[in-house]
User: What shape does this take?
Amino acid sequence: MTGTPGNPAPGWRLGRQTLDLSVPRVMGILNLTPDSFFDGGRHDRPAAAADHARRLVAEGADLVDIGAESTRPGSAPVGAAAETARLMPVLERLAGQLPVPISVDTCRAAVARRALETGATAVNDVSAGADPAMFPLVARTGAGLVLMHMRGQPATMQDNPTYHDVVAEIGAFLAARLEAARAAGIAAGQIVLDPGIGFGKTTAHNLAIIAGAGSFRAAGRPVLIGASRKGFIGQLDGAPADGRLGGTIAAVLAAWHAGAVIFRVHDVAAVRQALLVARAIAAADSPRDGGNRRLPPHQAPAAKERQG
Ligand code: HH2
Assistant: This one.
């Protein structure tokens, strides 16, 4: 069974490691910010933040994404010094301690450099390389790189975003940034592409992006989707951020069916379980085997446990 319908399932190179993408992967979110839209202020002490990273791993995170500056709509940048000061004490606690890779969610090459020196092995850049020093840094270090689409800047990006064809335009942007990254010496295998749910998009745009998630696979590179608890879920049913887990799971499963393979989420345990069950159903969905297909070995214990 491949992890994703229709996905050629390449790996993702993160320094010396390669993350196998033949199965869907969960990226746990850790925000070290006072103002993130969901977990702002919850992990602003380094020891508590490091504990939360370990909790995300215990829940089944395949990697942990650590950010120190909110990019929610309307947020203001905090500056490299503040970002670095928030990140370093947490990275120092986790370096060499976590059994999964760490990515740093930053647009600043200076911040990314310190994080990569302190144990992170990937850069999650929501500006897709706007800092001219970012691509050379990633090329030099061999780090993983997420290239994300954003229309405008967080402070103003939700002021009436318009597209002629949102999926085609974002696809063209990501393909162009992928080419620019490769021209700067970054190997294709280091790159993952993200259409940027909520970054200069209306609810209708976000829904079209999720439905068309597989179409962002420029040059066959994998697609990451970050829909966790975002505003479009609240737009659909009025729920505040802490009441959007059901919508998050629906978005993850729809995006997985459409061809995305990495999911950036706050709720690792619930999303991991949803993907596990969806994969088991997909594996059983064969008219010829009468429902008798055996689960792959790594799924069997969990499936057995839940029957009892
Ligand atoms: N979304 C957020 C931040 N970083 N990175 C990627 N690659 N994709 C995303 O969709 C994405 C991201 C915003 O969510 P969150 O970190 O929960 O909130 P905040 O920006 O308020 O800290």
